[in-house]
Every structure is written in C-alpha cells, then in structure tokens.
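I had to read the description of the data format several times before I understood it. For illustration, here is how one protein appears when written out as sequence plus structure tokens:
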Amino acid sequence: MRKLLLSSIVLLIFAIALTVFQMSCKKEATAQQTGSNYTLPPATTTTLGGVIVGSGLTVNSSGLLSTTPNANLVQLNTILYLKSGATSVEIWLANTDGTNQRKVPISLAASQVIVPGYGERLSPDGKVVFFTVSENQAYNLYSCSTDGSNLKKIIGNIITLEGVY
C-alpha cells in the first residue's frame, strides 16, 4: 500500500511539473500592423518573435516583416482541361473566366490515345502541354506546344504524371 501511495505522489508531482512547463511556454507571436507592414516582437532568450516560412519574406533587426514580390512569377490566367472528342480524348485550353476556348490540335498515331486523369499539365510559362499517351498497353509521357506543334515523347513506361511544373 505504501508503494502505491508513493507512486501516486510521484505521478502527481510529474503531472504538476508538466502543467507548469506548458503554461510557461509562450505559444503565440503578436504582430502589430503599420500600413502594409507587420512588426513582430524581437526574439529574446525566452520568447520567439516569429517564424518565417516560405520565400519572399524578410525581417529586419527591429522585427519589421515585409514581403518582396517574385518578379519571375507570371500569372497565366489559363486553364487546361480535357473533352471527349468524336473518337478520343482532346486537350483544350481556356481563360480562367471560360472565354477563348481552344483545342490543342495533337496528331497521334492510330494506336495512340491520350489517357485522361493522368496529370495533364501546363508548363509554368504556359507554352508547353504535358500529357500521358497509351500505346500497346504502355503509358508514355509526351509534350507539345500549345498550338500542337513540337510533339515529342519525353519518358516511356511511366505509371503516373505527378509534380510536373
């Protein structure tokens, strides 16, 4: 009985120590907004002023957080989608508001078909389309220009098309 009582006391002290530790840790960083800038409190030995995640953010010595636009980032305002054609799947492009719909005229051999749902992608500059073609029970990665020219097989015997940008 005495061992049970001592074990209970030790567990109670341990639980109290954990609770005090959790309460003493500060879990938030408060930023003050000044115009379009946010100022984080400076980091000290007991508090963390803020955490930077991602790119395009800078913090000066007084804790002023600012963003820098990415000059290389281009907004295409173009979507890529698939349509069922007369005999096969077709790749189409349009503006994000649905206007300027246009077919990407891809000329494939009779034994080749575009495989829908295998991660069709538009390149970051909006000039190249990536898609999967099935031929003789093998899947191959192809690319072409948005006008259908420059069709070429890039990789053979793929399983899926993921992460192409």
